[in-house]
Amino acid sequence: MNTRHDWSQEEILALLREPLLDLLWQAQRVRRAAAPDQGVLLASLLSVKTGGCEEDCAYCPQSLHHSADVGGRPELDVEAVLSRARAAREAGAQRFCMGWAWREIRDGAPFDAMLAMVRGVRDLGMEACVTAGMVTDRQAERLAEAGLTAYNHNLDTSAEHYGQIISTRTYQDRLDTLMRVRAAGIQLCCGGILGLGETLDDRAALLRVLACLDPHPESVPINTLVAVEGTPLEDHAPVDPLDLVRMVAVARILMPHSRVRLSAGREQLSREAQILCLLAGADSFFYGDSLLTTSNPAVEADQALLAAAGLRPSAPAATPVAGAPAS
Ligand code: SAM
Ligand code: DTB
Ligand code: SF4
Asked: Which of 42, 70, 4, 30 is nearest to 230 (CA)?
């Protein structure tokens, strides 16, 4: 399949505006040609360090700048995190994602603990993902040496709309971190959020930045805003699920080989809307009862969702032989 990195804003806008059934048809064709037998990647999420973040992201309940700041939960230690990772593996997750409410990684004991967590998750035979803000070149290298599979760092919206949502860092800061992560040989997990008051042009612009990265981000999380009380966006209207379906379908068409992940906001979606997203080419979702600070559909409901859609999880995490290093 011809994978492109030169999509124009007009081409992407035209796709976002296509009649829905034509768009779904195209997305499904791309999906089947690119990855005919691939199952759904189940990723579990855990907040290791919650709240008290210096950044002012308007959507986020973990920012110090908002009254919703959810600080006060103790920072988890390596053993606590690994026992949650083991439980996620038992429940069927292939990837374990760990979050820190930091503006940037700083060297020291918490970073050393992060590296131990990454090694531990990999030793369980799972993929490991970290999201912890900005990184230096050396920190990215150390994460790579620890075996980190992917680093999550979202662009969230278009460069034009970004300033309405975050003032404490720039779009370029975000892009610089993405380049450092990539240079260290770690996969990129990078996507955005619908429902931030953005226009269709902003959505197309976000997709264009992602689809013009070469290579494309290996994972593209598509979140819909969870409007948390006490954040500046608490009164934002819910996103129309069909707009999410369109966003997923266009992401699939632009980035045929990337994992497109249904992320925050899935609790607000009916079973049928989620199945439409899967038809539109989503091939991953967050799996487990909670995201970072908000809730997520129950594991049993997600097992039933996969069964109803006739889909299977992608190859389960291997149970490593005792004493053998994870590959
Ligand atoms: N502090 C790090 C950072 O911002 O990169 C990592 C954690 S941060 C919570 C991870 C991502 O969660 C954000 O980039 C954003 O896309 C998403 N997120 C946070 N709050 C959200 C909300 N209320 N609704 C939807 N997505 C949200
Ligand atoms: C991503 O794109 N979404 C996840 C994960 N990457 C880190 C986080 C969603 C957070 C939703 C709000 C919360 O639970 O605090
Ligand atoms: Fe901090 Fe990340 Fe929340 Fe922004 S999204 S306030 S950087 S935890």
From this structure: 70
